[in-house]
């Protein structure tokens, strides 16, 4: 349940000369799922434990990462009969909040955006055009002009998500009929106040980020030309920036101080706190069992393995 063994499809078992240069690799993770795992199992073992933290005022982030066509959007959004992490997490969040209503007043606000070709679009209000990333005086990243919807009901959010997802940029490529061409970020902010009036009243604020990244892709495999090729280049560039940040963060605390360049792309600036800052972060790495995507699977596993070594204090 914790090991992934990656076999090289081009290897010949009878080739004595190259026997000791095998590219077979074993990776160990906190949790490994095979093709039989259900949405519920994945949710319970990755995300469920973070929900309590968000209510107590901690931040949490869930990533879906991997090459194109490996099922990231399915894990995060799911289908009507098999809902994904978005819906399950919000259901649990509202159930937990309703249990505290006697002592606490709470508000939940939601924003849903996509990063497409290095510009930010609001999926709940697509007519607002491209939005800017700004840093406020406390150093937290804000998106100017984003729609924040306040709600007290998981059903409402589910409808918003479905509506927002229809606005998301998806195009067919040779690798995947509904390939996501943008990174989607769902941000849920929970604010709680005590109902008893006391001096120096404290407000608890927890943020939950859920990120469905676009898949890294090779132009040769997706047979992209023109506009699709351009999108692919932007996607790969932002994922490379994310990889560089993860690399630098996983080496941090070593002998030499590493500089972490969060400003290389909009994606890494948005996720700055989730990666090296005040947040509990889960990365769900997706790989494809196809022998044609051996290289992508190998890179994804190395990437996820590095992310596992990042230590943050929440």
From TrEMBL:
<keyword id="KW-0175">Coiled coil</keyword>
<dbReference type="GO" id="GO:0005874">
    <property type="term" value="C:microtubule"/>
</dbReference>
<feature type="binding site">
    <location>
        <begin position="66"/>
        <end position="73"/>
    </location>
    <ligand>
        <name>ATP</name>
    </ligand>
</feature>
<dbReference type="InterPro" id="IPR027640">
    <property type="entry name" value="Kinesin-like_fam"/>
</dbReference>
<keyword id="KW-0547">Nucleotide-binding</keyword>
<dbReference type="InterPro" id="IPR027417">
    <property type="entry name" value="P-loop_NTPase"/>
</dbReference>
<dbReference type="Pfam" id="PF00225">
    <property type="entry name" value="Kinesin"/>
</dbReference>
<dbReference type="InterPro" id="IPR019821">
    <property type="entry name" value="Kinesin_motor_CS"/>
</dbReference>
<keyword id="KW-0505">Motor protein</keyword>
<comment type="function">
    <text>Plus end-directed microtubule-dependent motor protein that regulates the length of motile cilia by mediating depolymerization of microtubules at ciliary tips.</text>
</comment>
<comment type="similarity">
    <text>Belongs to the TRAFAC class myosin-kinesin ATPase superfamily. Kinesin family.</text>
</comment>
<keyword id="KW-0966">Cell projection</keyword>
<keyword id="KW-0969">Cilium</keyword>
<keyword id="KW-0493">Microtubule</keyword>
<dbReference type="GO" id="GO:0008017">
    <property type="term" value="F:microtubule binding"/>
</dbReference>
<dbReference type="GO" id="GO:0003777">
    <property type="term" value="F:microtubule motor activity"/>
</dbReference>
<feature type="domain" description="Kinesin motor">
    <location>
        <begin position="1"/>
        <end position="310"/>
    </location>
</feature>
<dbReference type="InterPro" id="IPR036961">
    <property type="entry name" value="Kinesin_motor_dom_sf"/>
</dbReference>
<dbReference type="GO" id="GO:0007018">
    <property type="term" value="P:microtubule-based movement"/>
</dbReference>
<keyword id="KW-0067">ATP-binding</keyword>
<keyword id="KW-0206">Cytoskeleton</keyword>
<dbReference type="InterPro" id="IPR001752">
    <property type="entry name" value="Kinesin_motor_dom"/>
</dbReference>
<keyword id="KW-0963">Cytoplasm</keyword>
<dbReference type="GO" id="GO:0005929">
    <property type="term" value="C:cilium"/>
</dbReference>
<dbReference type="GO" id="GO:0005524">
    <property type="term" value="F:ATP binding"/>
</dbReference>
<protein>
    <recommendedName>
        <fullName>Kinesin-like protein</fullName>
    </recommendedName>
</protein>
């Amino acid at each position: 349940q914790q090991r992934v063994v990656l076999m090289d499809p081009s290897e010949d078992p009878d080739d004595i000369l190259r026997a000791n240069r095998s590219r077979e690799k074993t990776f160990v993770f906190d949790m490994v799922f095979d093709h039989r795992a259900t949405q519920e199992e994945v949710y319970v073992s990755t995300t469920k434990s973070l929900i309590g933290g968000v209510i107590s005022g901690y931040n949490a982030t869930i990533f879906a990462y991997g090459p194109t066509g490996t099922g990231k959007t399915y894990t995060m959004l799911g289908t009507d009969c098999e809902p994904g992490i978005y819906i399950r997490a919000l259901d649990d969040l509202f159930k937990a909040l309703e249990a505290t209503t006697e002592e606490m007043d709470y508000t939940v606000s939601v924003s849903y955006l996509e990063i497409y070709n290095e510009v930010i679009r609001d999926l709940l209000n697509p007519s607002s055009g491209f939005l800017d990333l700004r840093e406020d005086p406390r150093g937290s990243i804000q998106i100017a002009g984003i729609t924040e919807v306040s709600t007290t009901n998981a059903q409402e959010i589910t409808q918003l998500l479905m509506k927002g997802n229809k606005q998301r940029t998806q195009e067919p490529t040779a690798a995947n009929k509904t390939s996501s061409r943008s990174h989607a970020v769902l941000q849920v902010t929970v604010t709680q106040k005590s109902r008893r009036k006391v001096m120096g009243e404290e407000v608890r604020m927890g943020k939950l980020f859920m990120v469905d990244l676009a898949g890294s892709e090779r132009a040769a495999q997706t047979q992209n030309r023109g506009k699709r090729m351009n999108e692919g280049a932007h996607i790969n560039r932002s994922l490379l920036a994310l990889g560089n940040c993860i690399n630098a963060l996983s080496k941090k605390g070593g002998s030499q101080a590493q500089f972490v360049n969060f400003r290389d792309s909009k994606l890494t600036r948005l996720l700055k706190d989730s990666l090296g800052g005040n947040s509990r972060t889960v990365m769900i790495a997706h790989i494809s069992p196809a022998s044609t995507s051996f290289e992508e699977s190998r890179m994804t596993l190395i990437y996820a393995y590095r992310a596992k070594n990042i230590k943050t204090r929440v």
